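Predict structure. Chain length: 311.
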Amino acid sequence: MALRTSIQKVNRSLPRLMAQAGAARGMATEKQIWNQIQSTKNIRKITASMKMVSAAKLKGDETRLGLAIPFNKWTEALCEETVVVEEPADITYEDFPQRTLIVPLSSDKGLCGGINTYISRNTKDAVAKLTAQGKECDVCIVGDKGRSQLARVIPDKIVRSATEVIAPGNFNLAAALSSEVAAAGKDYDAVMILYNSYVNAAVYHQKYKLIRPLTGEGEEEPMTEYEFEPDTKSEVLVDFYEYMLTSQMFHSFMDGACAEQSSRMTAMENASQNAGELIDSLTLKYNRARQSRITTELIEIISGAAALEDA
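Prediction complete.
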């Protein structure tokens, strides 16, 4: 009778002792694995919801971009051609003037892939190359993510920043951003707008626009084929340049908003897939641990019964 009581006590306490020993060795228990599975499932629900939200926002941003493209078409005759930055090493910036204001357009929110990283990388590359050529450049950042990244590497080049930008954007927002750019200084020879350009839901490129002031004399005098009345030509060109800068900023901001939503949608889809793969892996580990526990308990029962028969 005493032997049977001792065996029963051992059988009752053995699973608890084995669990404690496993936890002490750094092995996850069944309960811990189960909690990880449930947490990962909750994360997958969140990322799947964020993907659907981004897809809905992308539809609206595509509509706004479609309206911004013809609205900004007139600036092509006055501005230089937009340059696609496929490889930063291939861009030399040798045609840039002596003083340039760089305006990188980043986002205020994260979880959108590498769009902000690419903008920050190209901005650092442009600053380094222009400085090596003996040219001056400053940075006016739009977006909190770009500000936080660039503030760690080129804090002395940042003259102004605009964060908490309201979405979806409109022309009034572009005008406010242009005012921030104008407030950074008026003695620059050109303004460089660096942004992400939307291609489709899976592809986007980095581009930059170089916008020069409408100034010059002689052969470099702009818009000589037009007559200006009643104001002087120089005053009209200053206002016209501000409007052109706002129009370019509006188009670039709309283009970057589409790229941001498409990148976030892709990132959330990849996160959901990774969560699913992690759930499958944890489920397999959980089943193995559960099967091992059941096998151990069966062995204990059989051993206890055999010991009773021997007694």
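Summary: The mean pLDDT is 85.
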